[in-house]
């Protein structure tokens, strides 16, 4: 209707949208959600009715973040274009009832289907897959109660032709893996809790009668990501047991992401030995215990590697260069490298080295020269201190990586060495970096534009130069090397935090202002920057980074007072594209002024606030939810009482759930003993993407799935 009503005005100005070529109109329409195209736009005029059903627009249907879609819309969509859909992504549509899946049977030509995060029973899965004879790629969840014996012979026939399977496990099970006899890519996400809701300890043993012979003979990619817990480790070993007997000859990507300690066993050692003899890899990630102290990397062979992750390993820089990068030889194929928590990766050896010692710039230089096409690099969770050698600062060396799209660095790595040594203590340095009473440090003012900020900042700093050289960077994380979130997975909230690194004490407003040079920045994470005095740099980021969609701020400035609140509110007024906002700061006051500023973020969809001793105003929250119609997730873990939190949560759900089917609200005291029980009910999409803090750069290989 808006298009039709606007035609007369366009004609009077000499411009008519309908006069554009079909190619241009199809490109414009490709940015419109498929549900809007089919159910709304195509009803406006005859030309759009034809274009909206073009194969280029109906071939692939993405519903995974279409939070306004409901069961009736899906039903109508499948009825209208079901036969034209070849790829359907409904990942994370947790709000849709399980009966919605029944309508997928209309998509007879489906080749790829993603139902991760959807409610699917064994019987419904069987009925649906029985009709999808062309299916080759499938993603599903395996929940408690899943029974493979309920799968029909027609369903198993479909599964036998599936070559790509992504399976998220919430219960010990093989799921549909034994039925998939043609697997080439297997992705496994283990989210099994150690205890039931009733408090009983769970076992990692599989259900009686389940086949224990997965078919891996054609496997090319094996990926497993484990949530914390011993049950997940027990179950993944069962999946690996078959691999240890016979390693697939075509295996080229082997990746296991496991937090904490995941001990190597005889079976896994046999598997790795077999891999060293029989395969050449393009992607590798192993638990730290499997690499530390072993000569495994010396024996593994690589073809044209595109992804390496040595997260949390004690791998030294010497071993990294000699065993992985072939002594500094050409490794242009590598596009993604995760060295998060690899504290000695930029030092020649780790035996007598302290984590805080200076890095060896020659190792980083070899890495930069050899891997000149890196697009994703993670160096967080470590102390990477540069020496005073001219031209050898970490930031100066990284500036050569012109293709970088995402980068994660520790705070202490971006400081100028000379400035750090010569600069006298600032006000924030004199304030204890611990929880405590509010400390007055004077009237806080900040410049309102980039030019004024530049007067305070020597633009010849190495970090300023680095940001200027990485013009196409889309994701940036600057995280304190000792930072830990107050909300770890499956554990009570952390009450005390470690102090920041001494080298990080001078990092603050000026460095944040330097980030504003990143015109195409889409995601920004800042955690534990001690020298934030006013937050002035945030205003510059809001003004200059107009593509910013995700913002995560944690423990900025001193801990007893939110010193950057005024600047944050000014920043938010400019963030028109912001969709996800996560704030973690003690004593944060989520009041009327904050929510009024946040209401300017017209595209905001998800909000998460984590604050020890933080306060909120219920009326302000309700007003914000009423004004921001796109918000479908509101998570607030504060210092308010359980009664206040429950009443506010119920009010939000009661007032807005009917118009926002995907609405997910969790408001709960941060230090309450039942926090972990509340967290387990949060949809995995929100929990993994925003609620839990973690570094996400190079977390997985690029284009791992869809």
Automatic annotation (TrEMBL):
Xref: CDD domains: F-box_FBXL18 (cd22128)
Family annotation (InterPro entries): F-box-like_dom_sf (IPR036047), F-box_dom (IPR001810), FBXL18_F-box (IPR047948), FBXL18_LRR (IPR045627), LRR_dom_sf (IPR032675)
Any Gene Ontology biological process: SCF-dependent proteasomal ubiquitin-dependent protein catabolic process
Family matches, as SUPFAM superfamilies: F-box domain (SSF81383), RNI-like (SSF52047)
One cellular component (GO) term of this entry: SCF ubiquitin ligase complex
Taxonomy, superkingdom: Eukaryota
Domain F-box: 14-61
Protein name, UniProt field: F-box/LRR-repeat protein 18
